[in-house]
Amino acid sequence: MYRRHFNALVKAWNTGEFDELEQCVHNEIVRHGPASMKSSANSIADLKNLITGFRTAFPDLHLVLDEEIYQQGRSTIRWTFMGTNTGPGEFGPTGKFVKIQGASIAHFKDDKIMEEYVFYDTADFFAQLGLTDLSIAATG
């Protein structure tokens, strides 16, 4: 039942197309992302801006769902993010390819994703970009 919700999210991350997102994500979604990545959101508009920003910094961004567990009212997803940092973002383009794995836990309300907790190793993410001084990466 909830698989289509994450398929809509994956489509948005991979293509930048949001046509299915509003059917699967609550307008008041709260996304808890790692603070060092400035990747939290407090509405579907914030989420769209977040995705657009990542897609600008990583134009070849590709997100793959590796493992999916769906239960009544919630889901847990293990995923892989890949992309080359060739565009502007919170820091200048590095030209480096990044591949990280992470996990998301989502809670549903009214048959839509209402809350998402996102976990991944941000130090590994920054290290793959060659940004070893995390104070610079975190402040842009």
Can you summarize this structure?
By secondary structure, this protein is of the alpha+beta class. It is built from 5 helices and 5 strands; from the N terminus they run ααβαββββαα.
Structure write-up:
The chain is of the alpha+beta class and 140 residues long. It has five helices and five strands, in the order ααβαββββαα. Helix 1 crosses helix 3.
Please give the structural blueprint.
Elements: H1 3-15, H2 21-24, E1 25-32, H3 44-57, E2 62-71, E3 74-84, E4 97-109, E5 112-120, H4 122-128, H5 134-139
Parallel strand pairs: 1-5
Antiparallel strand pairs: 2-3, 3-4, 4-5
Helix pairs in contact: 1-3
Provide the descriptors you would attach to this structure in a database record.
5 helices, 36% strand, Nuclear Transport Factor 2, Chain: A, 5 strands, alpha+beta, 140 residues
Strand order of the largest sheet: 1-5-4-3-2
Mean of residue pLDDT values: 92
- The assigned CATH architecture is Roll
CATH class: Alpha Beta
How helical, in percent, are the residues? 25-40%
Strand content: 35-45%
User: Can you tell me the overall shape?
Assistant: globular
* DSSP, total strands: 5
